[in-house]
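Q: What would this complex look like in 3D?
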Amino acid sequence: MKKLIDCDILNKEITRRAFFKSSALLGGSVLLTSQIDLAFGNIKNAEASVYYSLSKPENIIYSVCLQCHTDCPIKVKLENGVAVKIDGNPYSAQNMVPNLKQNTSPSVAVKIDAKLCPKGQAGIQSLYDPYRIIKVLKRNGPRGSGKWKTISFDKAIGEIVEGGYLFKDIGESRYVDGLKKIYKMRNPKLSKSMASDAKKITEKKLSINQFKSKYRNNLDLLIDPDHPDLGVKNNRFVFMAGRIEHGRKEFAKRWTTGSFGSVNFFEHTAICEQSHHIAYKQATRQYSNGKWGKPQTEQMKPDALNSKFVVYFGTGFAEANFGPTNMAAKITNRLAKGEMSIAVVDPRFSKSASKASKWLPVEPGTDAACTLAMIRWIIVNKKYDKEYLKAGNKAAAQKIGETTWSDATHLVRIEDDGPGKFLRASDIGLGETELVVVNDDDKPEKVSDDAVFGRLDYAGSVNGIKVKTAFRLLKEQALSKNMTEWSKACGVPVKDIEWVAKEFSSHGKRVAAELYRGPVKHTNGYYNAQAIIALNILMGNIDHKGGLTTGGGHWHEDGSKPGQPFPMKLLNPYKLHSFGTKLTREGSRYEESTLFEGYPAKRTWFPFSGNIYQEILPSASSEYPYSVKALWIHKGSPGLSIPAANEMLKILSSTEDIPLLIADDIVIGDTSMYADYIFPDCAIWERWGIPHTSPDVTQKSAKIRQPTVTPLTEVVEINGEKQHCSMEAVMFAIGEKLNLGGIGKNGFGNGIDFTRPEDFYLKMAANLAYGDKANDSVPDASEEELKLFIKSRRYMGPAVFDIDRWKKTVVDSKLWKKVIYILNRGGRWENFSKSFLGNSGFVVHKYAKGVNFYAESVALEKQSFTGKRFRGITNFEPIKNAAGAVVHDSDFPLKLITYKDIRGGQSRTLPQDYWLSLTLPENYILINRKTAKDAGLRDGDMAQIISSTNTDGAWHLPNRIDKEITGRIRAVGGMKPGVVAVSWSFGHWGYGSSDVDIDGEIIKGDKRRATGLCPNAAMRVDSALKNAPMSDPIGGSVSFYDTRIKLLKA
Amino acid sequence: MNQRKLLMMDLERAMKKPVSERSWVMMIDVRKCVGCTACVVACAAENVCSPGTSYRWVFDQEFGDYPNVDRFFMPTNCQQCDNPPCKKAADKYAKNAITKRKDGIIVFDYVKFANNKKAGKAAKAACPYNAISYDGGDFYTDGTPKREPYETRRFYAYGELLTRKNTTGSIRACTFCVDRLDNGMLPACVTTCIGDAMYFGDANDKHSLVYKLLKESRWNPYGKLGTKPRVHYIGYARRSNIAFATNKTCEICHSKGGE
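A: Here is my prediction, written as structure tokens for the whole assembly.
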């Protein structure tokens, strides 16, 4: 009964508490109090008599989740303006197959909830996280100390822009350069000309002295006048995004590069799955007129609605990947009916593996060995699609009824140091830049526009030049070991490899090999991915029903299609041309740089990859290629999530390495707690975004994330516009102060203001509503739907929703009705039809291009430490550090891998979402039963992880106490002996897990948020780099799964 | 046609009939369960459960040893028994604190149970499925800077608008989301299931999907206890796709007599 009494005083208590705590800034906004009271149920209003209000369309706003990057369309259910329940959006092909027809009325759709994973369901708890911050915080002690004071938004912006002795009051005597000082280049015309001339220097078309003489009056703008290719001083500002997606990505990139003029805009992809993307990119570059063009795609997925057999490498359909909500039922329904089967290659017996016909517990980092073994079996047994592979170009493909073709028959020149360039027709006097095959008459033939078929397995010499076909190079790799040797290399029994190879080659085109992080988060990640892609190409399965697909694609939000109302890139007449070598040396060739001084380079150069997240902080610290003045960490936690994390934390805490560190976050996170200033960001459910869709979804899609509730963050005024504090607001405010181009008044050009988030995102929504071409638009919203649109936003505050202001940014009133039509549905999706199903034939949305076994550009590039060429064809390579030395660490007997439980993401989710931690309150050190026993460990024991570069097994948290890397042993049958797996999501020291001091008031941390462990601090430091983790020099991926460890009983 | 649409159509047909002519059953195909716990979260959110209260669990059980291992996911909730042991037990202390609706749904009287703790305790102990939990009045966000609105909001149970005040001190269990059903919506665990493992419908309707599935192979945990559950399990009768397990595996946990 005591409890009942507690509840009776609940309302009074909460109201009082909300007032107290909001002045202390955590725990929700005063503005919301009245709405929350309504939701408590005690205050009666007109709706209280309506039975089950969540089945009324006016209580629904569709948006898009971001508890993970799968970005599932969601249906947010509101009670008096408070989000109370989230389900899947039934209009979306991602949440339901078949999805609701587009013209279904929202009043019908409201009754149909579509699928959503547990993370998405728990979004309510990330939105209403009691540790959300709503006001700007400034550090009131050393970085990481957990001491803060609240500061007005305007004052914070003023300090960041102007600089000064910003931390004098806490005893730091240093002068901090403001953004004003970093924003040196301000002239769009000059930036364009300098950018173009700096490029000429790297192309050796212009000398440094010529450059210096031409720009003698502007040399102070450069980081180093003797190295103009490093770019301007603006580059000393770095924007480091953790999770940033389409919509926000374009917004932030436009601001960082075009408005502020820095080249240093980064995403986090290299700690995610970058090598997977890079391998697909290299495999899908098209050769024409003597040049390799842009990659055509960065990933493909099985057409799982129709596959007969799918083999998953280091991923699955039921956890993580991209992603379970759209994938799971496609597989489970067909598995239950016996229509398909799957195999899983993974050291861990995952949830997906539990549904597999075969589990191949591979040794971490040996995926290429396992795959080359399968390729060997397929080649030796002639189970590949010979007819497909013989077709050497588009015309040949068309002749045999295919939509894609490969380079299998194309001749590669064999140089003394290995395969090099493709043979060109001009090399043998047969033509110009065309590639060459040897045809069935044993004659060289150039790959012209006519149908060209070549010999597949050819090695010989043409006009005295030694050549081999790309297929031959693959075959040689596959046959370089026998099955027993391959089996030994990858730790999978020969019979299991053969079983999978046989199954993979027994269903025609309706098979696919799929990969995600598992094979690629290694120093050899690119080659592993390339091998798996090759396995697919051998079957010629791309575009075939049940084979590999690039997915349904999306309508274009950027306005790049003819007739679209808002061409976003063009609406930027005053943009700066940012230029120079990026801090991470990504996308640049060492040999072209003026920094070139032979091998080894000081740090790795990444000519093929981008978003090398793990190199940002170490490069800044090493000042190679230059030092950094200001860093903005957006929605990311590099101090937690990057391997060798102690190195990251050390740099983050150093005011010398990073003089000014700002962050925007929804909480005081594990990394943002090291910032000088934290700006509260809007949470996913409070803001905009235009994310793209997994290729697993074969229907064309366009999704719109939009505010569903009034944001909790404080309202600020910028350019005379009231809006909630967010990443965008900070950009507007800095823009206003520095008078940056491309943002603010006339930001889109004369007379077109860019002063609110929706000025950007609603224009994108308008492009989607218009469609990709004429007569592709959605219908106008009816009068009834217009009313519904307004009614469902009746509780939204004016700083987020103002119908007249929204309408104004779309300009055209006819277009506005179409925008409402898609906002009322959360996007637009192609209707489902039978054409998406079938036992044969092609997928609806085709790739219809060439694919490559051999990556010529990779083969010609040199590793920047060794100066030796990379290889164009996949191969099995050991784990190496930056200097190219093989890493052994044989004193450490166990291999460490990580994974994600479906309940956990990188942030938010576990353990902060209490509905999720209800069933998984902590994570474990997952280990094979026998391995545990051999190490003297039992199930339930606590154990500490140590490695060769973290011998004390601890997180060294600067200005805080160390935290041991300790977790509970879970001894199971479903782990490969000798491998240890730790799931992501746990082991926090920030994010509400520890006490913080704000304005002298202690906000107590929540122990439930501090459970479990994060193993990243144990992950290996690269011995050649000293302050960074190991990386894949081609794909750019950080090494997550190459660390050897020891477990000590704690 | 997809499973979800069929289930929606079945539901629409059923709701046109009087309550007394409906017979709700739930079916779970364990082959299709991927152990994600979306149902657990959807249920907790929909029904505003306290940290100690849950209507739905998913067990994750490994069998065997390396490399011949298997893993099962077993979702479970109140089986809405037609011969409910919980009712018999509770009646001894509080007559009709548990009643059966004509459509088969078990109804808990939160007032009676809050006023008679012994009745709740007895009902909880009597359930062979451990499907009943006690709402002790805890909130997930207690001890944090703020008790959040998703816990204090009003919600619906058995046709009534409630807050946690009304359930505190009582026992609680799955309601088959009766308030969603009354509004033409499938239960929250069924709609959110990413593996399509869940079925729901009217067993009296010969055209319904559940009617057809009931005719095929199915089993009930502890079926031999005579509880006459309304939740039925499908799966692992034909295991051609699944690597290592056998039909016998289920009996490790359900030794009291699965069908």
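A: To summarize the key features: The first helix of chain B runs from residue 3 to 15. Chain B touches chain A through 82 residues (CB under 8 Å).
Q: Very helpful, thank you.
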